[in-house]
């Protein structure tokens, strides 16, 4: 049998050129070896930094290109199943409690003949770690692009479980770049819970309130976030690390927030 012609053009005694192994043309089928997957992104920042505004802008941009998505939220500041921005933009959303399987939710829409190209998830810090895993499965196995928006740490400066899992799994982590200022003028990223004018570091992790609206709640309703007009007032104030540590709300403790628009 005649041997196949050699493809080695190196002259006798000459070392091979290492760049010969490089080629601008991919090997046939190499692109198919890398499966197409969706992306899981987490945009995070303190209260007042514009996360909900950005979430609605991302949804608008995708919808303009003919993509179809679902807006999901858990415990929006309004208390309603919607995503609300402090600049006045509001969109209806699907409320997802901790027992909701997000994979089953998307598959139910597919079964009804509805496309789901992407998900917008606001208040993502309130997701359970299991729900974040489900979002990763949708991105990897079903090519759904997932955009999560939320706060990283709670009023004790500890990571929310949902945010912690997003830090572990997300393809991209993006701090929201709108500056939020402490009352002293320094950059602020700590969400202090203020009860009757004083910072508290005890209590349930989830109490839904706002930086611009003082709300009244009873201790028994803290976990559900239900409003009550007969008890203590609760709000949040965004502080720099130093004043968060010191519990210093500034000279005007009645201030309801640092920014008038998110």
Can you put this structure into words, describing what you see?
This protein has a 6-stranded parallel sheet with strand order 5-2-6-7-1-8, sandwiched between helices. 34% of the residues are buried. The protein has 6 helices and 12 strands. It is elongated. The chain has 262 residues and is α/β, with parallel strands linked by helices.
State the helix count: 6
Q: Which term fits the overall shape?
A: elongated
The sequence of SSEs as H and E is HEHEEEEHEHEHEEEEEH
pLDDT under 50 segments (min length 5)? 19-26, 216-230, 253-262
Task: Describe the strand arrangement of the main beta sheet, using strand numbers.
Answer: 5-2-6-7-1-8
Helix percent reads 10-25%
- Residues in β-strands, percent: 15-25%
Number of strands: 12
Query: How confident is the prediction overall: mean pLDDT?
Result: 81
The major β-sheet equals: 6 strands, parallel
Structural class: alpha/beta
Which value, in Å, is the CA radius of gyration?
Answer: 25 Å
Query: What is the straight-line distance between the termini?
Result: 78 Å
